[in-house]
Amino acid sequence: MPVLVMKFGGTSVANLDRIRRAAKRIGVEVAKGYDVIVIVSAMSGKTNELVGWVDEISPLYDAREYDAVVSSGENVTAGLMALTLQEMDIPARSWQGWQVPLLTDGAHSAARILDIPTDNINQKFGEGMKVAVVAGFQGLSPEGRITTLGRGGSDTTAVAFAAAFDAERCDIYTDVDGVYTTDPRICEKARKLDKISFEEMLELASLGAKVLQTRSVELAMRYKVKLRVLSSFEEQSDEAGTLVVDEEEIMESNVVSGVAYSRDEAKMTVVSVADRPGIAAIIFNALSDEGINVDMIVQNISDEGRTDMTFSCPTNQVARAEKALLAVKERGDLNYAELVADTDVAKVSVVGIGMRSQSGVAAKMFKVLSDEGINIKVITTSEIKISVLIDRKYMELAVQALHDAFELDKAA
Ligand code: ADP
Ligand code: ASP
Ligand code: MG
Questions:
Q1: From 3.40.980.10, 2.30.110.10, 3.30.2130.10, 3.40.50.970, which CATH number describes the 259-406 domain?
Q2: What are the pLDDT digits (tens) for 176-190?
Q3: Could you tell me the distance, in angstroms and rounded to a whole number, from the CA of residue 289 to the centre of ligand 1?
Q4: Which atom of ligand 2 lies closest to the CA of 73?
Q5: Cα 24-26-28 angle, rounded to 5 deg
Q6: What is the pLDDT of residues 121-132, one digit of tens each?
Q7: At what angle do helices 16-31 and 72-87 cross, to 10 degrees?
Q8: Which ligand has an atom closest to residue 14 CA?
């Protein structure tokens, strides 16, 4: 039997009614003759609640226990989904990550998938089971501990299963009906794309468009998984949603094809460090040892042999970053005057493969922001994206102004 992977995100399994609706949708695919692997998220809001409890009890928590707690939301939905399917006379059972087992490395809270043995689930399909419901987001470390794959990780579970089982397609059911030029929740002119290239989707995801987790797009690209994003709230045809495809499959595209934002950014400045070889290495090694995801980096012009080093990282890693930098200072390896954290910033980015061949995008972006009176704090660019760090209160304005200026509401 051909295998289909269907993933349902938090809002698509938010309550029993939604679970029943999703189960009906699964029933449609079973009736077409598929063996279906369903990946479920926790009910919406559940993971945030669990993370909140961990933070309250232990701000600099043990990541192994964080994973033990936050992985639990998915277990509930997996069992409920299997029960709902059974009530519809569809043979189904649930699997937690460790039961598959979905094997990961030991990087707790951001684990990478190493292997997904297929024999266990395939044997059940062979015995007449039609749907394997798997708890997303979780796996098993080499030490036998429960791991999680990072926020939004059920998308990655889904794509990894699609690759392991050689599925015909991986359908990501969510609360919007596809991938848009920007988040439709903050820009009403956002336009749904029928297709988007892996490269652009990868950039949009990594720059904050949470509709797909970045790792899921990477995996789909590497294993050539046919990946589709669609809504679980509407009746769906076979052409619904957005397909993520190879660049060659897209005939024409705008120079800029999307705008992404990330609210969850902090800017940290190590004030007055010596301007000599090795200082950046000390700072960023210390941060990396502590597992801080440093994104943008700027070093100021030096003045009398001293300079400031500014970087950005996720807001929830500021406390850890401070701890790491304080430790190197106390060890006498680094001398600085002060550590300043600005947690009221956001990152806004424009993305498009057309930027490879067309210049002037950065100039236009900066002009648009300046016309809106928005000050740019940090800039980074790559071949197909430009990102700026700005005050968070201007984030939505910046997204809307850029969407207008690059005319993303109009197709190429
Ligand atoms: P799920 O719970 O189904 O995994 P997520 O909340 O993780 O859903 O992702 C879906 C959300 O992603 C949408 O509700 C939307 O607000 C947001 N989003 C951000 N950027 C985009 C985009 N470019 N296209 C579509 N959705 C986007
Ligand atoms: N429940 C997890 C989260 O909220 C994983 C997921 O939904 O993809 O991040
Ligand atoms: Mg998600």
A1: 3.30.2130.10
A2: 999 999 999 999 999
A3: 31
A4: 1
A5: 75
A6: 999 999 999 999
A7: 60
A8: 1
